[in-house]
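Notes from the 1:1 (GR / supervisor)

We went over the backlog. Supervisor wanted to see one worked example end to end before approving the batch request, so GR pasted a single chain during the call. The sequence is below; no edits were made to it. Supervisor asked that the structure be written out right there so they could see what the output format looks like.
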Amino acid sequence: MGRGKGSSIGWIAGVSRGQILFEMDGVGLSNAQQAATLAAHKLCSSTKFVQWSPNGRPGNLSEWGIPIGDNYGSSYGTTEPGEELKSI
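Structure output shown during the call:
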């Protein structure tokens, strides 16, 4: 009894607000931005490309992980391809 639930059609994972989904190392900035843009089109939410700063955290996140600047009503805000990141 209880086995007739059907097969699963996919997987889902919860993502917290401000969570970094992908980290890239060893590739150029333009290649990383292009890969992030392609990946962002597959996600069903708005994303933002962030770049690590010398102080050891993303350049557009505060020390508590809260996005700085315009968020456009989403957890990360949006960055168009080729748009420059704001520095702290």
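Supervisor's comment: Residues 29-40 form the longest helix (12 residues).
Batch request approved.
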